[in-house]
Amino acid sequence: MNAIKTLFDIHYPIIQAGMVWCSGWRLASAVSNAGGLGLIGAGSMTPDVLREHIKKCKLATSKPFGVNVPLLYHDIDQIFEILVNEEVRIVFTSAGDPSKWTNYLKANGITVVHVIANKKFALKAEQSGVDAVVAEGFEAGGHNGREETTTLCLVPEICEAVSIPVIAAGGIGSGKAMLAAFALGADAVQVGSLFAASIESSAHDNFKNAILKATEGETKLSMKSLIPVRLMKNEFFHRVEKAESEGASRSDLMQLLGKGRAKQGMFEGDLTEGELEIGQIASSIQEIKSARDILDKMWQEFNSEKERISKLSF
Question: Are both 122 and 144 inside the same structural domain?
């Protein structure tokens, strides 16, 4: 039996990433209803907004769903209090030290998964008592590891290093990629970019259409001296790139980043001045599909490719 399917009680070992400004209750519930694990992305929500999304998600699905929480969140105490009070059963944490909150969450009956990008933090997460880790490679959109380790290299290293289930992330945009992740030792995959461009995504249509038009090489890891993040290239990105090449300090970059850039780009649709977080697979996304269609196609392709490989002779 697949460890992740058992852990979350889901049909497909496919998790929708908790993406800021893209993954509200509509997307999370749609993914869960279709057999995957949907995640509400708390990183862009105030405590009151998060509570509302959790309540609406419960009304929209009877299936398991979770919440992704960046641990650098400024209202983290309130956020976790809400998760406990609203009886959320699955929490994915990221961008911080899992040892600070894992025991508290697990004591309240919550299954905890932590997102990592290197072996050091995978081991730390396991020692903290998390139930699984997401090994997120360099290809992924949004915030990323400074080491720039690709999924192909990261996943087998993490699988060998820890004894808990491993979820592969970064560049997973097809059933073929999913099968490759399983060959590397993963127990499931986490998918972001495909769902960011889905019908149920809360991203602005301008951003979704920009994803469809993306070409190879149109994303790049940026702001490594501040908080590494993979962005689609636009005027804002090029200003950041220029500032970094000229030796901008952290404070200079923070001033350039300002406030609300991600909301401006992904949620409000400003393709010039906004921050557009998306993974390398953006160039392979050709159509805005429903969450159900995305899951069904991935699973069908996964099984078809698995059958094809089983017939190969070497």
Answer: yes
pLDDT digits (tens, 9 = 90+) for 217-275: 999 988 887 888 899 999 999 999 998 888 888 888 888 887 789 999 999 999 999 99
Q: Which residues contact 77 (CB under 8 A, 6 or more apart)?
A: none
Residue 162 lies in domain: 3-202+284-310
Q: Where are the beta strands (DSSP E) in the chain?
A: 14-16, 38-41, 65-70, 90-94, 111-116, 132-136, 142-143, 166-169, 188-191, 219-222, 229-232
What's the angle, vertex CA 273, arms to CA 272 and CA 274, rounded to 5? Answer: 100
Cα 76 to Cα 72: distance, rounded to the nearest angstrom = 8
CA-wise closest residue to 166 among 176, 179, 156, 178: 156
Tell me the CB-side half-sphere exposure of residue 110, using CA atoms within 13 A.
Answer: 28
Secondary structure letter of residue 147 according to DSSP: T
Q: In whole angstroms, how large is the CA radius of gyration of the chain? A: 18
Please tell me the number of Cα atoms within 13 Å of 133 on its side-chain side: 31
Instruction: Report the pLDDT value the prediction gives residue 208, as an integer from 0 to 100.
Output: 98
Q: pLDDT, tens digit, for every residue of 207-218? A: 999 999 999 999
Q: Taking the CB of residue 129, how many other CB atoms lie within 10 A of it?
A: 15
The tally of domains found in the chain comes to 2
Please tell me the distance from the alpha carbon of residue 155 to that of residue 256, in angstroms, as a whole number.
34
Task: Tell me the pTM.
Answer: 0.95
Tokens 């953006």, residue located: 282
